[in-house]
Design brief:
Helix content: over 70%
Organism: Rotaria magnacalcarata
Mean pLDDT: 81
Keywords: Acyltransferase, Transferase
Low-confidence stretches: none
Number of domains: 2
Radius of gyration: 26 Å
Catalytic activity: 4,8-dimethylnonanoyl-CoA + (R)-carnitine = O-4,8-dimethylnonanoyl-(R)-carnitine + CoA
Number of helices: 5
Pathway: Lipid metabolism; fatty acid beta-oxidation
Pfam families: Carn_acyltransf
Number of strands: 0
Length: about 100
């Protein structure tokens, strides 16, 4: 077993050397990684966010807790209070000015 491994080491060394040369010779690849940024994350709609929130909480809350949560979410979403939409608009505005709306900037 050890003899077999030692006979493969020169081949492994050649392979590692080839990979290192390839990485340092390919300047365009390195430049592409730095210069081309990722696309901006889209801001999900308020409805999509609240629906996902409720779907995640339903299995871990009791029926009474979930009913209360659903009532609060409906109030947050309602056009009477307009709180949800106001915060959504603020988030959308922040996302337009920021590279990553999730992190502080």
């Amino acid at each position: 077993m050890v003899e077999n491994l030692s006979s493969q080491l020169p081949t492994l060394d050649k392979y590692i050397g080839r990979i290192k040369r390839q990485q340092t010779d390919d300047k365009d690849c390195l430049k592409w990684d730095i210069e081309k940024g990722l696309p901006h994350l889209p801001v999900p709609s308020l409805d999509a966010t609240l629906t996902k929130y409720l779907r995640c909480l339903e299995p871990i809350q009791s029926r009474d807790e979930f009913d209360r949560t659903k009532t609060l979410v409906d109030q947050f979403r309602s056009s009477d209070t307009n709180v949800g939409q106001h915060l959504q608009d603020m988030l959308t505005e922040h996302a337009a000015k920021s590279e990553n709306y999730v992190s502080k900037s």
